[in-house]
Protein: G8 domain-containing protein
Amino acid sequence: IVHGQLVAGSESCRIQNPISITLHGKRPDNVTSFPPNASYKGIVVSGLLSIHGKQFYRTWTRLATTMEGGSVDNIAMVQHEVNWEIGQEVVIVTTAVKDSIEFHENEIR
Structure:
């Protein structure tokens, strides 16, 4: 077992740009593997993985105005200030009378 740390950024010094982490090397011979159809499910973690990226404030908010279904202008007015970026995925969830598949009108934009 190899114990170690992979640290990228910190709470006081967050990474602001995209990063790519590539692990190279050969799996040691003494690593225990289980067949894919084994009834045992588990994971063993040894070491520390600490990644601190850009923090987005207000990961969710409410719409400030009603959006019409099928709206093509792609503008949603929200109640609170956010720091979301162009290209990020926004999920708009309906206010449904009943929580069931028949009333599902949620959209991803």
About this structure: The mean pLDDT is 78. The longest strand covers residues 5-8. The beta strands are 5-8, 48-51, 91-92, 107-108.
